[in-house]
């Protein structure tokens, strides 16, 4: 049964439960066994609640598309009374919630069996998962000397290793797509406000953050997005209504699309040769599929750097606010947070209310500039990251110069120059596992479309998955075992 479990995606496992070929208890037992065996090398699964999961099964699972499928939620957001959280921080270790978030309730309504949380960087800041609260970094199962990404790095590592077929993530600057790229998975970021944020907030990081899921198969992403999409009660914004569903759209041919690709960042900086190769290979595939493919040349006034700095100011303020809410006027023990968090708090003190509003305005203005890009094309094709997955420690959260950590040489935006662009613009974007480096590390390919064009984007993804399936590559790791450094 274990090998059958490892070979199935979430939809496949749910089918086994529905047909009586397996029970939810049996699948949970396998997931727990795999967690015991694999997690010591990964440090991905945290805060286990086995009895909560078993009680959910005894109480009767909802008749949703993933009934009986083991599932993990990120140790950040997805507030749930039965699942305390650290938010990736020693300061918040074991925080309990008085309510269930809407995104958690909608995920649970699919019938998943949630049994633990997954590691996250402190308060979700950073493209790696190396928070001090977990007593060590979260590692990439393709090579444990490399990062699994962030901020949903624990989810990425657990899914790539085969512990579960899919897991919750969230994406405020690429935090679903970065681990998807790093771990050889599907990471789809919907249009802003497509998924609910309530009841505690109306938006995260000035509208840049949104929940999501990391999966091995596109159909699992589509089914979970369908189950979670739509505004919740009192939502201040909502996305343009979809004409149908993600699942229906992924099975349709997208028609001919105008694809534009880039061999460099949108600021003109060079990319790692493996990332260039990933873009070129995908561009050829899309051309063979009948799309119009040409090189992208950004407008001189796109000014990604100004948006990135504004983004850093917003995140610093959000990070400082999260810490202040926990402290409630008490002084902060510097040892209770990581260096990057200390730097964010210090930087936030320099930002006035007017500075903050100016940063939000810059992000919104950038979103309008990106909207103009898609008047002349349908799809923007880039790598997800500028390099293959970084080595553990390369972006460790120890630098207390917050601007340098994020915007400086060797920093976050140099490593991940594409993903935050589409959090700022709110446009849908996805990382697909279409390439591996010369060292056999995953190199995700990033596709983005205009605001609200989720269905057309997932339709294109479905066409790509049918033409260049990635399951066998994923199974080479899952069946072959974690690869040491």
Automatic annotation (TrEMBL):
Coiled coil: none annotated. It holds the Pfam family Amidase. This is Amidase. One of its GO terms (molecular function) is catalytic activity. Belongs to the amidase family. SUPFAM superfamilies: Amidase signature (AS) enzymes. PANTHER family: GLUTAMYL-TRNA(GLN) AMIDOTRANSFERASE SUBUNIT A, MITOCHONDRIAL (PTHR11895:SF7), TRANSAMIDASE (PTHR11895). It comes from Antarcticimicrobium luteum. Residues 30-457 form the Amidase domain.
């Amino acid at each position: 049964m274990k090998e059958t479990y490892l070979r199935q995606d979430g939809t496949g496992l749910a089918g086994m439960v529905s047909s009586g070929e397996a029970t939810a208890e049996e699948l949970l037992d396998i997931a727990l066994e795999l967690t015991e065996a694999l997690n010591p090398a990964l440090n991905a699964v945290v805060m286990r609640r086995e009895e909560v999961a078993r009680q959910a099964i005894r109480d009767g699972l909802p008749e949703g598309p993933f009934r009986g499928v083991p599932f993990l939620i990120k140790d950040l957001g997805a507030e749930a009374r039965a699942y305390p959280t650290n938010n990736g921080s020693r300061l918040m270790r074991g925080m309990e919630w008085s309510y269930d978030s809407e995104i958690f309730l909608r995920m649970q309504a699919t019938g998943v069996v949630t049994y633990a949380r997954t590691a996250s960087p402190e308060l979700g800041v950073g493209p790696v998962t190396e928070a001090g609260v977990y007593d060590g970094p979260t590692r990439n199962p393709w090579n444990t000397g490399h990062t699994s990404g962030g901020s949903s790095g624990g989810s990425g590592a657990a899914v790539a290793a085969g512990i579960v077929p899919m897991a919750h993530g969230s994406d405020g600057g690429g935090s679903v797509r970065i681990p998807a790229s790093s771990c050889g998975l599907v990471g789809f970021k919907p249009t802003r406000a497509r998924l609910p944020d309530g009841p505690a907030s109306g938006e995260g990081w000035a509208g840049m953050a949104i929940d999501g899921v990391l999966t091995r198969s596109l159909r699992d992403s589509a089914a979970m997005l369908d189950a979670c999409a739509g505004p919740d009660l009192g939502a201040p914004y909502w996305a343009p209504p979809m004409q149908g569903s993600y699942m229906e759209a992924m099975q349709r041919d997208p028609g001919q699309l105008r694809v534009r690709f880039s061999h460099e960042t949108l600021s003109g900086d060079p990319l790692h040769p493996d990332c260039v190769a990933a873009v070129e290979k995908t561009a050829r595939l899309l051309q063979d599929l009948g799309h119009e493919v040409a090189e992208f040349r950004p407008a001189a006034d796109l000014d990604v750097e100004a948006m990135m700095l504004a983004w850093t100011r917003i995140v610093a303020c959000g990070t400082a606010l999260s810490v202040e809410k926990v402290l409630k006027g008490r002084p902060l023990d510097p040892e209770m947070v990581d260096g990057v968090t200390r730097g964010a708090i210090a930087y936030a003190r320099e930002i006035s209310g007017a500075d903050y509003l100016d940063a939000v305005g810059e992000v919104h203005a950038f979103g309008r500039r990106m909207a103009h890009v898609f008047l002349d094309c349908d799809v923007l094709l880039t790598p997800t990251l500028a390099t293959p997955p970084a080595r553990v420690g390369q972006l460790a959260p120890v630098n207390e110069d917050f601007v340098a950590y994020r915007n400086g040489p060797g920093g976050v935006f140099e490593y991940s120059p594409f993903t935050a662009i589409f959090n700022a613009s709110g446009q849908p974007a996805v990382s697909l596992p279409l390439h591996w480096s010369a060292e056999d590390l995953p190199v995700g390919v990033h596709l983005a479309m205009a605001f609200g064009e989720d269905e057309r984007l997932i339709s294109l993804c479905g066409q790509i998955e049918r033409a260049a399936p990635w399951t066998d590559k994923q199974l080479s790791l899952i069946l072959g075992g974690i690869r040491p450094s």
